[in-house]
Amino acid sequence: MRVVPTWRLPDRDVAPRLPHVRFEATIDVAAPARKVFDVYADVERWPEWTASVTSIERLDQGPLRVGSRARVRQPMLPTTVWEVTELVPGERFSWVARGPGIVTTGIHVARATDRAGVTEVTAALEQRGPLGPLLGFVSRRLTRRYLDLEVHGIKERCEA
Q1: What is the pTM for the complete model shown?
Q2: How many angstroms separate the CA atoms of 7 and 72, rounded?
Q3: Mean pLDDT in the chain?
Q4: Domains of the chain, start order
Q5: What is the C-alpha separation between 25 and 122, in angstroms, rounded?
């Protein structure tokens, strides 16, 4: 099992006008990537497998897709509406929440490895904008904890 939390300022060439921070946790899961992705994509059921989420309410119908929105409640954080901005079926999705001075992106990846039946799962959070690095620094412990809960929770759910 491997968990790799990171906190770093990106190379300035990547986003010269948008300062940001990124937190990331990665773990290997003994389950097929499609199964892991399907658990990730069923966002309303996240509270069943991660303590980092109290509830998620989809604001639209049907399968998760670009443009899908959900109201997410998390302990010690304000209720936030997230909108899916990227979706690669069976592999990854990203969603974005916006607030004054900050744009937060949640990234959820289930990538097949060269080892049979093993999927590398990555949960990441990027905070951009004028307040992104400051809020990232202030909330770094909570963010790291929630990402750790997320990857360990999906591992336990998918390996059960």
Answers
A1: 0.87
A2: 23
A3: 90
A4: 6-159 (3.30.530.20)
A5: 6
